[in-house]
Amino acid sequence: MRAASQKHETSDRNMPAGLSAIGLATADDAHGPCRPPVLLMNVRLPMQKLSFDKRRIKFLFLEGIHANATNALTADGYASVRSLPKSLTGDALKTALKDVHFLGIRSRTEITEEMLAAAPKLAAIGCFCIGTNQVDLAAAAKALGE
Question: What range defines the domain where residue 40 resides?
């Protein structure tokens, strides 16, 4: 059992300082078996039990992230969870990121330094795909407070 779980573990060795990658298990969806997403977040900040009202935290899932993600968050009291079936680009993506705290993407959404600059409230990016090539990791480390 241990050997099977090892192939889904994520290494922090290639991450910029201040970021950590955490593998999360997900269910299969319309795109086939889901790989564990990689969640990029600033791990140097201390976690608080109730740092912000759940009803004010905004989630955005792009590219058809499974409905179980939305359902789990709303069942836990998060009121602003938006899920779109396709990726966004350009000004549409910038507008969508304006007030988002947590972003879930797959492989088609490109998160560049320009997109991160348009997302001042962004705390974490969940990559529900193989790898993180679609995220500018150096810019993410800088934007998340490296």
Answer: 2-44+51-143
DSSP state of 111: B
What's the predicted TM-score (pTM) here? 0.68
| 137 contacts 16 by C-beta, under 8 angstroms | yes
Domain count, the chain: 1
Residue matched to tokens 């889901």: 34
What is the spatial order of strands in the sheet that 102-105 belongs to? 19-23, 38-42, 124-127, 102-105, 58-61, 80-83
1-52 pLDDT tens trace: 333 333 333 444 455 554 445 444 444 445 555 555 555 554 444 545 557 8
Give me the CATH number covering residue 11.
Answer: 3.40.50.720
- Cα separation, 143 vs 36, in Å, equals 24
Residue 69, judged by CB atoms within 10 A of its CB (0-12, 13-18, 19+), counts as buried
What are the tokens at 50? 């109730």
- Nearest residue to 127 via CA among 33, 28, 61: 61
Helix spans in 8-88 (H) = 67-75
